[in-house]
Amino acid sequence: MPGSTALTDSVSPTAPREVTLGRPLRVFAWLSFIAEILIIGTGGAVRLTGSGLGCSDWPLCTPESLTPILEIQGIHGAIEFGNRTMTGVVGLLALAVVMLTLHALSGHRLVIRAVWFALGGIVVAIGVYAAASALGIVASAALMSAALLLAVIVGMADSLRQTAQRRHLAVLAWLVLVGVMAQAVVGGFAVISDLNPFIVGFHYAVSLLLVCVTALYIVRLDTAPGPRASVVPGWFAGLTHATGFFLALTILFGVLTTGSGPHSGDANIQRHGFDATFLAHVHSWPGYILAVLVLTLAVSAWILKLAPRNWTLVLIVAILVQVGVGVLQARTGLPAIAVGIHMILASLSAAAYTVLVTRLKRPAQGWADPSTGSGAQQLGR
Questions:
Q1: Last residue of a domain, which of 223, 246, 269?
Q2: Residues 160 and 288 placed together within one structural domain of the fold
């Protein structure tokens, strides 16, 4: 991957500024992607070690302390607080990607506006917290977080409205930041609700989606702007999208299965009452169909020498390893380490599928940027 790419994408008759996507942006984009995967691992560790209520409160760890009191909460408190700390790291990386993206697309102007929105959001959030606390509202911290999240969403809308070039990069960067902030709120509700399995499952599903969005952002950094044309037969594209449906179905039933199993996040938490054994079988059915579909894609792509063939191999390796780990954990009584690996591999499989879909098209032949005259063939794929 090159250290920097200069691309221009004009949506206005006025002369656009040159867009340079430099090495710092690429480094932080990759760090954000890695962090999104790591937080799935730390979140899984919280659940699989029974540390889900290691911190009994939110956003503080206890009503009296931001950090766990190890003499009282022990290792469970440390594990839960470690995951909360990782959320902060993920958020800072997402913020860095947003700021670097805005700077690359528009210079200092949108960066300064975003900073002002952030400062305004912080002031409003503090005001909401103070007012709610004065009124004796128990959920004052949740209201404060909601106010800050709303300010970021307003800032995102303002930023995107003024972004003329390569807006898709700004959209993806903002989505990750908003998603991370929303995830912090969802995590808080998970604790407040005593680890409601549906909230915990939704928490994981959103984390997985954020892995896909960060992967898509990295791909788009080297994707030429402008119209795109399909490079695969229609039936292959249809089969690829059907594969995505069964991948999503497999993950959905996997989340429900885990929510019914023994790894509830805390020894005293009751699950939602579904039959975990039956759900495990239901989870495997779309999983096996998924494996067959991916194998079909890979064989077809290589026989026909289609552009996405390399990524079909990446996806098939990820899915086959997933199937193997799933069978292993089912036959060995769901050991925590196997369940954790299964969770991380699911996110990597979804990310690989996301990249595969982007390889179904390429910049349209003969298209040229109206301001520079540079054709699609001169731009990075």
A1: 223
A2: no
**What's 195's DSSP letter?**
S
Q: Which residue has the tokens 């995830």?
A: 183
Query: 5 by DSSP, 3-state: which?
Result: strand
Query: 59 in helix, strand or coil?
Result: coil
CB 315 within 8 A of CB 353: yes
pLDDT on residue 1: 43
Residues with Cβ within 8 Å of 115's Cβ and at least 6 positions away in sequence, in order, are: none
- The full DSSP string for 325-369 is HHHHHHHTT--HHHHHHHHHHHHHHHHHHHHHHHTTEEEPTT-B-
Rounded Cα–Cα distance for residues 39 and 87 (Å): 7
Same domain, residue pair 205 and 266: no
Residue 287 CA, chain-centre distance (Å), reads 22
Q: Which of 193, 223, 253 is the last residue of a domain?
A: 223
Q: Using CB atoms within 10 A of its CB, is residue 135 exposed (0-12), middle (13-18) or buried (19+)? A: exposed
Instruction: pLDDT band for 229, please (50, 70, 90 cuts).
Output: confident
76: tokens are: 């469970």
Identify whether 379 is part of a domain.
no
CA triple 186-89-54, angle to 5 deg:
55
Q: Which helix (H) or strand (E) holds 38?
A: helix 23-48
pLDDT 10s digits, 2-25: 444 444 443 343 445 566 778 899
Structural domain of 315: 228-368
Quick one: how far is CA 96 from the chain centroid?
16
229 strand-pairing partners: 362
